[in-house]
UniProtKB/TrEMBL annotation:
Localization of this protein: Cytoplasm
Species of origin: Cryobacterium tagatosivorans
GO molecular function: DNA binding; tyrosine-based site-specific recombinase activity
High-level lineage: Bacteria, Bacillati, Actinomycetota, Actinomycetes, Micrococcales
Role, per record: Site-specific tyrosine recombinase, which acts by catalyzing the cutting and rejoining of the recombining DNA molecules. The XerC-XerD complex is essential to convert dimers of the bacterial chromosome into monomers to permit their segregation at cell division. It also contributes to the segregational stability of plasmids.
Residue intervals of the Core-binding (CB) domain: 1-90
Pfam families according to UniProt: Phage_int_SAM_1 (PF02899), Phage_integrase (PF00589)
NCBIfam families the UniProt entry points to: PRK00283.1, recomb_XerD
Subunit organization: Forms a cyclic heterotetrameric complex composed of two molecules of XerC and two molecules of XerD.
Entry protein name: Tyrosine recombinase XerD
InterPro entries in UniProt: CB, DNA_brk_join_enz, Integrase-like_cat_sf, Integrase_catalytic, Integrase_recombinase_N, Integrase_SAM-like_N, Recomb_XerD, Tyrosine_recombinase_XerC/XerD
């Protein structure tokens, strides 16, 4: 079976049978396009001719290529995709051996999530204060991101009906898994102002849509627009650190744990399938406590 046909079968499998999110399938498609192009350059058009040595060589290539070598985390992600493809082909009896099974990804450095302080979050949110349509929308968007710890994709994909009442919102995460997350008073006030005084005006500029957050032409706000909104607010707030939509998610988790929240509650709020993913935030709060101890305790140094 040719590499192209095998990839098509695999993508159909993860999309239809496993029901993975469209963004995840698109990421698989991009990764496998790089892999099959690399195989084609070596005249490996049939996947049954690929060996474990080829897969290992591909991993080395990703980190050493002259044009845009990948980081260790990106290589690990791409290798995970390649391993999924070969495992699928073995399960479907297309090949007799999973040649990618024993290929190891590069070691990842210990990278802690980058959160900003509570004061910096307050300054960021205050930078969206105002009464015009876009300011009301931006305020509601940023307050929702910080209040719920949602991924930016989860917030921009919200529909009006997902705001179930004044206190909770329904988020749809990876794999279309839904969770109910409470919304604090600041976010509720910002959302009320947006829904009453801004969204009707934005909606009138475009076709009817159930989307909660709308752009200036009445369409659903895109990921890129959300990123630009946050960057502009960070500039107005005078923040000298890099701020992205995920920064608010990291800050949400870090501030909750620092305030005494149980890690499993934070796991549920973030939509993590494993508590191990959430526990990385406990390292951030432990580092903060360690710094405070070193600074404040008379016999710490």
């Amino acid at each position: 079976m040719s590499a192209g046909t095998a990839v098509d079968l695999f993508l159909r499998h993860v999309s239809i049978e496993r029901g993975l999110a469209a963004n995840t399938v698109a990421a698989y498609r991009r990764d496998l396009a790089v892999y099959t192009a690399w195989l084609a350059e070596r005249e490996l058009t049939e996947l049954r001719d690929v060996t474990s040595g080829h897969v290992s060589e591909f991993v080395r290539y990703l980190g050493q290529r002259e044009e845009s070598p990948l980081t260790a985390s990106s290589i690990a992600r791409m290798l995970s995709t390649v391993r999924s493809l070969h495992r699928f082909l073995l399960e479907e009896s297309v090949v007799e051996i999973d040649v990618a099974h024993d290929t190891k990804p590069p070691k990842l450095g210990s990278r802690l999530p980058k959160a900003i302080s509570i004061d910096q979050v307050a300054a960021l949110l205050a930078a969206t204060d105002g009464e015009d349509v876009q300011q009301l929308r931006d305020k509601a968007l940023l307050e929702m991101l910080y209040a719920t710890g949602a991924r930016v994709s989860e917030v921009i994909n919200l529909n009006v009906d997902d705001v179930l009442d004044e206190e909770v919102v329904r988020l749809t995460g990876k794999g279309d898994k839904q969770r109910i997350v409470p919304v604090g008073s600041y976010a509720r006030a910002a959302m009320d102002a947006y829904l009453v005084r801004a969204r009707p005006l934005l909606s009138a500029r475009g076709k009817s849509t159930p989307a909660l957050f709308l752009g200036i032409r009445g369409q659903r706000v895109s990921r890129q627009n959300a990123w630009l909104i946050i960057r502009a607010a960070a500039v107005r707030a005078g923040l000298e650190v890099e701020v992205s939509p995920h920064t608010l998610r990291h800050s949400f988790a870090t501030h909750l744990l620092a305030g005494g929240a149980d890690v499993r509650v934070v796991q549920e709020l973030l939509g993590h399938s494993s508590v191990a993913t959430t526990q990385i935030y406990t390292l951030v709060t432990a580092d903060t406590l360690r710094d405070m101890y070193t600074t404040a305790h008379p016999r710490a140094r």
